[in-house]
Design goal:
- The chain is mainly beta and about 270 residues long.
- The chain is built from 3 helices and 19 strands.
- The longest helix has 5 residues, at about 30-35.
- A hairpin with a 7-residue loop joins strand 18 (about 235-245) and strand 19.
- The strands form 3 sheets. It has a 13-stranded mixed beta sheet. Strands 4-3-2-7 form a 4-stranded mixed beta sheet.
- It has a domain at about 110-274.
- The chain starts with a strand and ends in a 14-residue tail after the last strand.
C-alpha cells in the first residue's frame, strides 16, 4: 500500500514531522493521517495543511510505503523510530532523517541533511546524493547512544564526525568525508571509498575504519601494525594494499584503521616500522 505526500508550498521555516513514518500511518484513513500534528516553526499544524495526502494505507507498518515528492529539505525527523515499511523521498530532505530507526528502509533520491540515522538501531538508509555532518552519530553529550545497528549507504559525500560514538552497524560512503570520521567509535564498520580530510578514528576504542582514498596524515596516537593486501568488510573484499593502524592508544583503544597505500605515497615511511 502506497501513501503519497506532496508539499503544498515551499517551506521557509523548519518543519518537525516525526509523524511521517509507516508506523504512524498504518491502520489510519487518509483523513486521519492528514490530521496528524506537525510543527512549522513555533506553530502547530495538521499534516494536511502542509502536504497533500493520497493513496491506500496498509493495516501494518510493514505493508506501508510512504512516497514523498518535492523538495523537503526544511522537513526534519522523517522516519523517526520507524520499525518497518519503506519511505522514499524524491528530492532533498532535512535533518534527523531516520533518527532512532529500528527497522525498514529509507531511500533518498537526492541529498540529506545532518544527523542522518542518528542513534539508529536497525534498518537501512540509502542516500543517492550527499549527506551532512554527524551521520550515524550520538547527540552531543551522549556517550552511549551512537548508532547501534543497521546500515547507512551514501553514494555522494558526507561531512564531519560521521559515526560519532558508533557502537555497531555499517556506514558506507562512496564519495569523500570531512574530519573526525569514527571519533569516539566503540564498534561497527565505516568504509570511505573516497578521500578523508583527516583525524579519522580520534579517540576510538574499537571497530574498523577503511579509507580507500587519500588522507592528509594519521594521528600520532595510532601505531602501524602491518600492510594488508586486502580488507574483507561484511563479505566484500576491498583490494589493497592497505596500511593497518591500531589505536587510539591514548584511549587504550583496539580500533583498526585501514588506509590505502597506493593513494598515500606520503605515508611511505610507515613501511619501515612494520
Amino acid at each position: 500500500m502506497v501513501v503519497v505526500l506532496r508539499p503544498k508550498r515551499a517551506f521557509k521555516l523548519p518543519v518537525e514531522a516525526e509523524c511521517i513514518t509507516p508506523d504512524s500511518f498504518a491502520g489510519k484513513s487518509v483523513d486521519e493521517i492528514g490530521k496528524l500534528k506537525v510543527w512549522e516553526g513555533n506553530r502547530e499544524r495538521s499534516l494536511n495543511e502542509l502536504f497533500s495526502v493520497e493513496g491506500e494505507i496498509g493495516a501494518k507498518p510493514e505493508e506501508v510505503m510512504v512516497k514523498i515528492f518535492g523538495d523537503v529539505h526544511k522537513v526534519r525527523r522523517i522516519g523517526t523510530q520507524m520499525s518497518a515499511g519503506e519511505i522514499v523521498v524524491h528530492g532533498d530532505v532535512g535533518f534527523h532523517l531516520g533518527e532512532e530507526m529500528v527497522g525498514g528502509k529509507i531511500l533518498v533520491d537526492g541529498n540529506a541533511g545532518s544527523w542522518l540515522g542518528s542513534m539508529m538501531k536497525g534498518g537501512v538508509i540509502e542516500v543517492k546524493g550527499d549527506a551532512g555532518d554527524y551521520v550515524g552519530s550520538a547527540y552531543r553529550g551522549s556517550s552511549t547512544r551512537g548508532m547501534s545497528g543497521g546500515t547507512i549507504v551514501i553514494h555522494g559525500d558526507a561531512g564531519n564526525e560521521l559515526g560519532y560514538y558508533m557502537r555497531k552497524g555499517i556506514i558506507k560512503v562512496h564519495g569523500n568525508v570531512g574530519q573526525f570520521t569514527g571519533v569516539h567509535m566503540k564498534n561497527g564498520i565505516v568504509v570511505v571509498y573516497g578521500n578523508s580530510e583527516g583525524r579519522s578514528g580520534a579517540e576510538m576504542t574499537g571497530g574498523k575504519i577503511v579509507v580507500c582514498g587519500s588522507v592528509p596524515s594519521v594521528l600520532p596516537t595510532f601505531t602501524v601494525e602491518a600492510v594488508k593486501s586486502r580488507v574483507k568488510i561484511n563479505g566484500e573484499k576491498l583490494a589493497g594494499p592497505f596500511y593497518l593502524f591500531k589505536g587510539d592508544i591514548a584511549e587504550e583503544g583496539e580500533g583498526k584503521l585501514y588506509i590505502s597505500k597506493a593513494s598515500n605515497a606520503h605515508l611511505k615511511s610507515y613501511e619501515n616500522l612494520v
